[in-house]
Write a structure and sequence with these properties.
single chain; about 200 residues; alpha/beta; eight-stranded mixed beta sheet
Length: about 200
Amino acid sequence: MSRIIADISVSLDGFVTGPGPGPDNGLGTGGEALHTWAFSDDPDDRQFLREGTARSGAVVLGRRLFDVVDGPGGWDDKTGYGAGEVGKPAFVVVTSSPPKAVRLSALDWTFVTTGLPAAVAAARERAEAASTSSGKDLDVVLMGGGALIRSALDAGVVDTLTLHWAPVLLGTGTPLFTGAVPRTLVQRSVLSTSTVTHVTYEVL
């Protein structure tokens, strides 16, 4: 069965965006520093990104994040999920209502209006179908935003949590863990690079 992996970049003071995030400023003021590693030439960062993309059978994101990545200043061939890497996973969006149009129409989008558990189930189905087709184990990746990942952790549906701890203090923004349900984590791996510290935890 495909694992459910929550994966997000976070500042040392616990924020996943800077202040004032929105469709035209997706990461908020100063939030770009959280994702420096994803565009780094550091070979360890490149390998981490490559391996993560390769194991992604389906990706879940919330509607606010979808509006950012599908907006005019959002993803393109150079900045999309796993841009420059092999393969394009299916994308599942949790939303109260599907958009009327999608700019990134070349990607495989599914819009789920019946809540996060249903979206995770749909993504797992897509990932397991991709696993069968490719002959290798593929996972479901929850890429955010922060509220979606926190909700998934609170609901107990996350198997693995990967945090990319960026060496920046944002002071304010979108917090990842404020008000979260207590969870026990077991640290499984740590990789420090020139730009970030990648830490992977098993969620008990």
